[in-house]
Amino acid sequence: MARNIERVGDTLSQLGEGPVWDDRTGTLLWVDIIRGHVHLLKPATAEYRRLDLGEMVGVVALRESGHLIAGIRSGIADIDILTGTITRRFTPESHLPDNRFNDGKCDPAGRFWAGTMPISGSGPHGSLYLVGKEGSLHRMVTGVTISNGLAWSLDRKKMYYIDTPTFEVACFDYDDATGSIDRRRTAFKIPRSAGAPDGMTIDAEGMLWVAHWGGWQVTRWDPNTGTIIDQIKLPVSNVTSCTFGGSDLRDLYITSAREGLTAAQLEAQPLAGALFVIRQSDWKGLPATRCSGV
Ligand code: CA
What we know:
Blueprint: E1 6-8, E2 16-22, E3 27-32, E4 37-42, E5 47-52, E6 57-62, E7 68-72, E8 75-79, E9 86-90, E10 99-106, E11 112-118, E12 126-131, E13 137-144, E14 147-152, E15 158-163, E16 168-174, E17 181-189, E18 196-202, E19 208-213, E20 217-222, E21 227-233, E22 239-245, E23 251-256, H1 263-268, E24 275-278
Antiparallel strand pairs: 1-24, 2-3, 3-4, 4-5, 6-7, 7-8, 8-9, 10-11, 11-12, 12-13, 14-15, 15-16, 16-17, 18-19, 19-20, 20-21, 22-23, 23-24
Calcium ion (CA) binds near residues 103 and 148.
């Protein structure tokens, strides 16, 4: 079983998050939310660069154009992938200055979803938004505390969603033609002892991978039966998200954070905030969908 954890590169993010593999350029992108950085690394050549957005960035997603769409502190914006220039498009929470955008993703049809949270992490003051094909913004879920991982079933009929303090992966019926969601229910519960559910991805077998904040691990679940299938332990407690990359989509990349750790904890976890990989894992991912027409 290939499950050796390696550190990748030498970055240490304050709040590393949102890994996404660009299969056109062989680049892994991930963000440091607090510092407003977008990291771009080509593992094959170790070529690395960083965009400094000058504003917190919760998520970036690939666009058909080669540029990025992002959820930033102040709203949803287009990002020039070469210069990091921000073009703000939607500011739905300008009346909530203590909120910021957090995790998000492109859905299978190429629409962009991103959710918000209070920066304090407390209070159900966030929402999950959708940028539709017609280019307008829709508020899809309200009463969210920490909007986090998103994934869609391989048949494009279900959307999975994590609002971290619920300690569950929720499931919605999802209409791929329109983006509408309905009939929220619990796909499975995460035991509190496992750490709080954070980012999420789905693999080529339709199994969900969940990163555990405060849980030292990522876990693999069968969402159809609600059973845990596998656990990968990390040398850091705040494991934030994961995705598959590499030319055959078998490298499992995992992000982590220093945020929320005491000086003593940081001393005990010197790799907190690092990017990790399991190269040539036993599992395979799916290519990231690109946002188009949004
Ligand atoms: Ca997150």
